[in-house]
Specification:
Distance between the termini of chain A: 26 Å
CATH architecture of chain A: Orthogonal Bundle
Strand content of chain A: 15-25%
Shape of chain A: elongated
Oligomer: homodimer
Radius of gyration of chain A: 16 Å
DNA sequence: TCATTATTTCGTTTATTAGCGAAATAACAA
DNA sequence: TTGTTATTTCGCTAATAAACGAAATAATGA
């Protein structure tokens, strides 16, 4: 989960995830929408892959990225954990 | 929300939040539990405050930190956004 | 006022991260 | 095989972030 939090700390990477929530996209398509070089973007992809937030499929020379929603769900569970078992008196609404 | 994601990217800061979910604690009490110097910890507190994830109250020379659960809830909402409006065919369960 | 305790700020060093362009890799078509 | 397109890796520089100890601040009690 540490890798996931780390991946989410970059605005560029969060924007990539936002794009992928709507549809799968190729590396090039993502690069066209963002204002960073392709090599920089590739580095971001590596971070997202390390967190298992995205997966890839290759077709020819083209690589398509898609969002791993299950990992996003795990993240939600992890954050919900910060809300349960709260201080006395304040029974978790 | 960018400040929140940034704050969560540090394992030390996430541990502080975990401690605060159970009970409010003073800076010194938190320092006793963690293996980093007090000045370092103070820096982490600043990041958490910038994200509004914690709030403080002073009593004498002692400063007590508490978790702002409302911001955690906002975070949840933001992450849930990554799951809604997904690709065709996959109607968000 | 002076000393004490709790915490923060400051200055510095070290480590990590983001960005770039150039070169390498991979798949495929001609 | 050669060339083309898509993407990644590499080497580098610049910007950020984490850590420390020392000094500063703040509140209080003697």
């Amino acid at each position: 989960m540490s890798d996931v939090f780390n991946a989410l700390s970059s605005p560029v990477r969060r924007e990539i995830l936002e794009m992928l929530k709507a549809q799968d996209m190729t590396a090039g398509e993502i690069a066209d929408q963002l204002d960073v070089g392709k090599s920089t973007l590739s580095g971001h992809f590596n971070v997202l892959k390390a967190a298992d937030l995205v997966s890839t499929s290759r077709s020819g020379t083209t690589i398509t990225y898609s969002l791993n929603t299950s990992v996003v769900e795990d993240l939600l569970t992890s954050i919900v954990g910060l809300l349960s078992k709260n201080k006395e008196g304040k029974e978790n609404a």
